[in-house]
Amino acid sequence: VQEGLKERxxxxxxxxxxxxxxxEKIFKRAGLPVELITLAQVESGFQRGAHSSAGALxxxxxxxxxxxxxxxxxGRRDDxxxxxxxxxxxxxxxxxxxETLGDWPLAITAYNYGAGGTARAAEASGSDYCTMVRTYxxxxxGFAVKNYYAEFLAALQVHQYEAKYFPGIQYEAPx
Length: 175
Description:
The chain is mainly α.
């Protein structure tokens, strides 16, 4: 049994209210579904200072190399914890994933596994997401990757029906 997930999710929902208005503007401007902002809940629980054992930082969990690719890291300057800049980069990354893979389940999986690896996995599975998750056994294509899209859908469900999952949740006015 893993405990504390409900509490961490609730805290992420509370933090998200501060960031969502700006994130929605950025995603709308990029022509992306605003529902994709929920990936930030999966990635970091909307914690600006979040960091992973792989060296990923920020709300959107960019590694240094991906941060360089999306103009977040320049020499000593590192904007991976700048919520606006990293959201703009996440929008570009998700757009590129969708353009490459042509399917949101695959594009979302690619946010975690990478577009190249996801493209190889999809090609080996006839571009069918469900077949890919059930049958593909490529390098590092393990539990976390196979469940990433399902985590996103679960987080989206809770976000859309937060009053049902967290009755009486109280938000503070944004600063």
